[in-house]
Design a protein that fits this description.
Blueprint (H helix, E strand, L loop, with lengths): L2 H4 L6 H8 L6 E4 L6 H9 L3 E6 L5 H11 L3 E5 L5 H4 L4 E7 L4 H5 L24 H7 L2 H12 L4 H12 L7 H9 L13 H11 L2 H15 E11 L2 H13 L22 E4 L7 H6 L7 E7 L1
Parallel strand pairs: 1-2, 1-4, 2-3, 4-5
Antiparallel strand pairs: 5-7, 6-7
Length: about 300
């Protein structure tokens, strides 16, 4: 398989469509448009409308392509999915979130999300605001260590932070390879293992884009806009993200309990807007083989009562 055919493969696409169940005449939101894989698949699977959201200005060209094909069945709205409530005013029948960095962003070396190629240390999904370089060159040692540990689950965060401080006494850290090499000075690369710089880069990306708060806000906004029996589908790639999704679903679904048929019914259903939620689903071995980026994906979905 060549590089082009490997790019921009929507993760767990068949599972997403099965969970979302698109149908004619309905309205769905693709809250993380990226390269439009989910949006296009939803539009192909039913005569429905898709509203796509994305903060990344670089997706506009792809959004225009889908608009030219599907006309008024497709609408793109620029913005963060954390602002779901203000971006989407209408009631919707379903929403899908694909959390984290997109294949398109990873493949654009100049965006600084990946250390596979040397590039400016950026990582801003919206291309504005504080960059990863700003963080590594300005944060105090303890704050850097806490950030790398909290968002990257990096056990050697203290040593990495100390090396960053030591390095920047001589020059600013400006590129992805500079930072990766600092990490390698603490944790040596070994064949057939996850690159040791992965966790530090992940932590910085989450911090730069405020991803965890955006996720909570986005889920809450989507739940507010879902119609009865609407479906909320989330694909995440990190244990912190998955924990937020799982907790959100549990907190908004009423626990099943046996009640006597003679008891007075006094359940406040508005406090528990979800009728049910799924167990975690993971990619098939075949998908992981053909798309290694899917290996850490976890899918959960919930249905509004």
């Amino acid at each position: 398989m060549n590089n082009l055919s490997q790019k921009h493969i929507p993760v767990m696409l068949s599972e997403v469509l099965e969970a979302l169940k698109p149908s004619d005449g309905k309205i769905y939101v693709d809250a993380t448009f990226g390269n439009g894989g989910y949006s296009e698949a939803i539009l192909k699977s039913a005569n429905c409308k898709v509203i796509a959201l994305d903060r990344d200005p670089n997706v506009q060209t792809r959004a225009e392509e889908l608009k030219n094909i599907y006309g008024n069945r497709f609408e793109f709205r620029a913005g963060k999915f954390g602002d779901f409530s203000s971006l989407v005013s209408e009631g919707i029948d379903g929403a899908v979130f694909d959390i984290g960095v997109s294949s398109m962003q990873l493949d654009q070396a100049e965006r600084g999300f990946s250390f596979a190629k040397d590039a400016p240390l950026d990582m801003r999904m919206s291309c504005v605001g504080i960059s990863a370089a700003d963080i590594v060159n300005s944060y105090a040692e303890n704050d850097l260590a806490d950030l790398i540990y909290k968002y990257g689950d990096e056990k050697k965060s203290r040593q990495i932070a100390a090396k960053i401080i030591q390095y920047r006494q001589n020059k600013k850290i400006e590129s992805t390879l500079e930072l990766a090499n600092i990490v390698y000075s603490v944790i040596h690369k070994r064949p057939n293992t996850i690159d040791p710089a992965t966790r530090t880069f992940q932590a910085l990306r989450i911090a730069v884009n405020n991803e965890l708060d955006e996720l909570e806000n986005g889920l809450y906004g989507a739940l507010q806009k879902l119609k009865n029996n609407g479906r909320l589908v989330v694909v995440s790639f990190h244990s912190l993200e998955d924990r937020i999704v799982k907790t959100f679903f549990k907190n908004n679904a009423q626990k099943k309990q046996h009640v006597s048929r003679y008891a007075i019914q006094d359940s406040n259903e508005t406090s528990f807007p979800l009728s049910s939620f799924s167990k975690v689903l993971t990619p098939s071995d075949d998908e992981i083989f053909h798309n290694p980026r899917s290996r850490s994906a976890k899918l959960r979905f919930a249905i509004k009562r």
